[in-house]
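Sample intake sheet
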Amino acid sequence: MDILLQDVRYAARKLFRTPGFTTITVATLALAIGATTAVFSIINGVLLKPLPFPRPDEIVAVGSYGREPRLSSMSPLDFIDCRDQSRSFVGMAAINTGTTNLTAAGAQPLRLNAAWVGAQFFELLGVNPALGRPFAVNEDAESAPRAAVLSDRIWHSQFNGDRRIVGQTISLDGNLYNVVGVAPPSLTYPNHPDVWLPLKFESWMVSPDNRGAHFLTGVARMKPGVTVDAASGDLATIAGRLATQFPESNGEFRGGAKLLADQLIGDVRRALYTMFGAVGFVLLIACANVANLLLVRAAGRETEMAVRTALGAGRGRIIRQLITESVLLSLAGTLIGGAIAAWSVDAVVAFGPRGLPRLDDIVIDARVLGFSVVLAVVTGVLFGLVPALHAGRTELGQMLKESVRGSSGRRGAQRTRSMLVISEMALAVVLLVGAGLMIRSFVKLIKVDPGFRTEHLVSFAVSLPDLKYPYDRDRNRFAGSVTERLAAFAGTQATAVSFDRPLQRRGIRLGFDIDGRPSSPGDRRMVTGVHPVSASYFSALGIRLVRGRLYTHAEESFSVPPVLVVNEALVRKYFPNENAIGKHLTLGIGHDTAQKGTEVTTRGEIVGIIADVKQLDLAAPAAPDVYVPFGVLPLNDMNFFVRSTVETGAITAAIRSAVRDLDPEMPIYDVSTMDQMIAESVSQPRFYMTLLGAFATLALLLAALGIYGVISYVVSQRTRELGIRIALGATRERVMRLVLNQGLALTIAGIAIGLAGSYWLARLISKLLFGVTPADPLTFGSVASVLLAVAWLASYLPARRAARVDPVVAMRAE
């Protein structure tokens, strides 16, 4: 230990005596280690950290698999059958998410994210409320009193953290709920709710005609010893029996289970590990750069090493001393890099992209700190080992000679430096190709036509409570009043209302039949998205009519047979060789109206075909969609659209005023321009592109510095030779070309290796790309050109210095 402390003190003194070298080295390492630590923090929070529940490996999400290879929702009747017939679970709780309106006397109404859950929900997760109690066993019965568990955030923001909230009542959608508990801050499942409410299976949910309505998810805890595969197989067996019993509604679905952590993570695992690999390349490039700096420094310390060897220091002691210095440099870089990582993590949490799960779990915790310390030690040994071994191999006699410019030791060190630079260039090529592919992909993505015009278009949402707006006529009256008030505002060009809005990833999916087209028992049922929209929706959003006509305001009434507008995707899929205009569709939905005992007919005639609108996201191909008059199917959730020539702030104030005048207890939410919606929809690919682009830029800078350092060192070592060449008649242009060729030779070797590696590694990010192939020739060619240009500039500066060598001065220095 004493010897180690002695080495540390000696290393610190040596580093303080060379502040320029120390500053450059620590800054290089700080950037690389800080970036690596930040990305590891994201991976730790999203992928590695266990869910904040006891024995999280027993908790699974349950649902059904349909036409897509991801676990999705199921119907209430299917859930009940799975819950009652499965033998793999301790218990199972259904989940439905949505919104509810919180109203209180003298306070502004507030829209809350709500989760309706089975009474066993908290028990299955193993979570006890921080205050109060969870739901009682039968509190999800239809006749049970209404109960609510508040989130910690809402408890503090709306109720000032008052512990007396338990036992009080709150008004949600006009209904009174008794607050029975407050959840702990760590509970944000599912979907960051503000309030949890008991999910009561009302009669319409469990109607035999509603078995095909998939809108519930579920969570379950497996029995000890049961695997996820066994549990999923158990549910698949039940689903198989249901498919046989109910082929029309269940023929295409099978039950399944998935670890809750995996379900929450979704498809971001590959992307995050790709980012981690990219930042690892940056760290390797930084290590190569620092190793090059240490090799240069070691060349100037040969006399010191000779003296230490003469005094009895063995090869092992010299290597240990040099590695101690490199680890000390790495630890210093880690301290600064930790601050960079903390700032980066705060930025990711604050401005993280939509769809990145578990953002709140991304923190600098003990595991991240331990990783950074281990990273510092490993990095220090990694970049310090090469120069240390070179120093340890040098013979004492060579070190004591004053004229050792051509020694094999220095030639060996130069070969090592060249190999390090080639490695840097190859790694930089891989990163630049990856970043180039992501940039090209993102550019293509944002150029996709969404199917509507976004300029000057503002959208907002409201959610009408059933208690206050129980009938279609009430909802239609509210929607009509809002659009009329907005239309009267100065600058308004168009207004519209719909159930959902483009790029929202929500909507209604229903099976349908085409009149006059019989189906065979083995046929897959036709499915479409259904969008209730007002007659003005198409013109307000600038959606192009392809053929036929749009329905009118008069055709929105439920007193007339409904007419339908479909998109081109539906025509391509279901009417590929025939005219869809005039065809009749029967949608699988019934809807009660203000007249008790009557039902709106679900059979409608196609009168128009519109261009495809991106309902899911810009990258997804358009799915078949049917647009029905909003007045025929006015649901509680409404999205309003206003196209106006006035600035966004003024129109937003007008929106709030219009809704407040109609219903002071009605909060509005999701107020944004459609341009903002577009930007938000591509936030995740923008995040990955930005990360990879930043890493590639840093790699390019480090590689350029590596080339510059090697060529500068070569020039300094060949000063006498270059002076002689000039004295013998060599032109300065020829000397410059000699030096430039050496730098470009290293670059070309690195580019060749890097392009070969990029061809294979680019396949790893193929699922993150849109409209670009992993072997895109434009990207590969552009990266090679950029690196050649940067390497030429990095070599040109020392080459110009070499061309200005004065032969007399060079010879006198010798």
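Comment: Residues 402-409, 590-601 have pLDDT under 50 and may be disordered. The chain has three domains: 2-46+269-446+684-813, 71-265, 469-662.
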